[in-house]
Amino acid sequence: xxxxxxxxxxxxxxxxxxxxxxxxxxxxxxxxxxxxxxxxxxxxxxxxxxxxxxxxxxxxxxxxxxxxxxxxxxxxxxxxxxxxxxxxxxxxxxxxxxxxxxxxxxxxxxxxxxxxxxxxxxxxxxxxxxxxxxxxxxxxxxxxxxxxxxxxxxxxxxxxxxxxxxxxxxxxxxxxxxxxxxxxxxxxxxxxxxxxxxxxxxxxxxxx
Length: 208
Prior knowledge:
Blueprint: E1 12-16, H1 20-29, E2 34-39, H2 44-47, E3 52-55, H3 63-70, E4 73-78, H4 83-95, E5 99-102, E6 114-117, E7 122-125, H5 132-145, H6 149-166, H7 170-182, H8 184-189, H9 194-206
Parallel strand pairs: 1-2, 1-4, 2-3, 4-5
Antiparallel strand pairs: 6-7
């Protein structure tokens, strides 16, 4: 399997299951795509979300009923309690050429990672379903040990542009940017604002 970052703007994501698992999946995609949740009943979390809700007894639904929900979908999430029903939804999705993630049953085509997202960065971690707790631990550890990532990204972009005009060597530019990343004083300056960090970087690395 390979990681990809997808733009789901305007794309339809169909989630089967209105319980806690379905709510977590809906929350993951909320604001990124057009989310539809199909279930016989909906928990409080999903009722409070801005998603399309389709009430249907999935356990007794015909293939035609389920296929009608798949129409126009880019991604399907099978998140019901019954692994057999998740497998059925997976088979129907694959027959329609639609990617599918399964909460239980046979593995689907897509893994939903543990994710930390900022203004200019996204960190996603998976253990391929073997240890969700470990995936969360790694993601939280990265966030703890590198606070201010968005500020550093802004600073790196600014320094990179400045170096293009003053340092002809690509190898040397890359080395300087790496030094900035590893400089603890830069990270310590970031909470005081981008100007404070830039003043330090400019004086130490750009005009020396």
